[in-house]
Amino acid sequence: MFVYNLKINGSKTFKYIFISIVLVILIIVAAAIIRIFIGASNASQNSPCSPMNGVSQISAKNYTNILKAVHDNIDNYVGLKIKFTGYVYRVPDLNKNQFILSRNMIISSDYKYVVVGFLSEYDKALDFKDGSWVEATGEIYKGNYHGDMPILKITEIKNTNCPNEEYVYPPDESYIPTDSLL
């Protein structure tokens, strides 16, 4: 039978464990910082809402986040040019040159939805029937419809088919609006 007598120096052991834990924490923090900077640079280069030719493209994924941000901070977005797909939706108290460029936002697990969208103005608005899908480009300005409201002044519009991603989802809580980039 072999018996080993192992003598452990408590202060040295504590130092080694403490240094090891600190190094692991530093490596984790460094990796997180690197991922944040890499993600930020990739997002600014490849973002689907980055302006192309001065026009921000809105997709089904960022639609409600942008809609919420614009409604919450109208003044920050006045003059911004946007492009997106939606369907024509009218309510009785709109002017003849107005309609809501809409999407259906799912609000429950059983696919109940509400209509959300940008109040839009176009001189030939009556050329587009209710429920018809269009792709529109326009500029946001501050108008009045039951209070201050962002209104999209349409500069280009064309009929299109219903998109694959017909529905949109409520804004996520992690969205942080900016006034420099949608």
What top-tier CATH class of the largest domain fits best?
Answer: Mainly Beta
As a whole number of angstroms, the C-alpha radius of gyration is: 26 Å
Low-confidence runs: 43-50, 175-182
Q: Level of helix content?
A: 25-40%
Q: How much of the sequence is in beta strands?
A: 25-35%
CATH superfamily of the largest domain: Bacterial OB-fold
CATH architecture of the largest domain: Beta Barrel
Name the helix and strand elements from N-terminus to C-terminus, one letter apiece: HEEHHEEEEEE
The structure class reads: alpha/beta
* Span between termini: 74 Å
Mean pLDDT: 83
Oligomer: single chain
* CATH topology type of the largest domain: OB fold (Dihydrolipoamide Acetyltransferase, E2P)
- Summed up, the domain count is 2
* Number of beta-strand segments: 8
Please tell me about this protein's structure:
The structure is a single chain. The protein has two domains: 1-46; 51-168, Bacterial OB-fold (OB fold (Dihydrolipoamide Acetyltransferase, E2P)), CATH 2.40.50.200. Helix content is 28%, strand content 32%. The chain contains three helices and eight strands. It has helices at residues 10-46, 63-72, 74-77, and strands at residues 51-52, 55-57, 81-89, 98-106, 113-121, 133-144, 148-159, 167-168.
